[in-house]
């Protein structure tokens, strides 16, 4: 039983490390290496509105690591409760409950605070850009730059 507990601990630790590495930023301050030293188009605009949004770093598609880790912990906890055949049943139920809880935790951890900024371009067109909150505060009526390159547009001051 001790060996199973050690294996579960290792699996959960690896799951936590891997999920931390999977962070995808939509911040206007973070560039991928392929975006560096590339020319961008800059357009001027006026902010029309700003609203807070949630951005899912995993696009609503969990990696499964949360479910696996939660299921393993739940199965171990459930198996330690029952005795004999009861430990098998409680282990299965604990594993199922742990998988559901682990998946929910993974999805919650993947959420980031963001803003949707609607701007009026100088040519009269309206555009909405969603990006991660970076500490920059945008207000209606404020002049901003839209920096576009490779299909990605960022709103900056």
TrEMBL record:
Keyword RNA-binding applies: no
PROSITE patterns xref list: PROKAR_LIPOPROTEIN
Keyword Cytoplasm: no
Keywords, sorted A to Z: Lipoprotein, Membrane, Palmitate, Signal
Major site of localization recorded for this protein: membrane
Membrane topology recorded in Swiss-Prot or TrEMBL: Lipid-anchor
Superkingdom field: Bacteria
Localization in the cell: Cell outer membrane
A cellular component annotation (GO) from this entry: cell outer membrane
The protein's name: Outer membrane lipoprotein SlyB
Species per Swiss-Prot/TrEMBL record: Paraburkholderia caballeronis
């Amino acid at each position: 039983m001790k060996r199973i507990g050690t294996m579960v601990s290792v699996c959960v630790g690896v799951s936590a490390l891997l999920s931390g590495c999977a962070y995808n930023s939509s911040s206007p301050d973070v560039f991928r290496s392929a975006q560096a030293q590339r020319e961008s188009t800059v357009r001027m605009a006026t902010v029309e509105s700003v609203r807070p949004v949630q951005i899912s770093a995993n696009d609503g598609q969990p990696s499964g690591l949360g479910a696996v880790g939660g299921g393993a912990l739940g199965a171990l906890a459930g198996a330690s409760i029952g005795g004999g055949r009861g430990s098998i049943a409680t282990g299965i139920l604990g594993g199922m409950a742990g998988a559901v809880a682990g998946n929910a935790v993974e999805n919650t951890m993947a959420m980031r605070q963001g803003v949707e900024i609607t701007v009026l371009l100088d040519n009269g067109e309206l555009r909405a850009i969603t990006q991660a909150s970076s500490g920059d505060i945008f207000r209606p009526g404020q002049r901003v730059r839209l920096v576009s390159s490779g299909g990605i547009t960022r709103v900056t001051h």
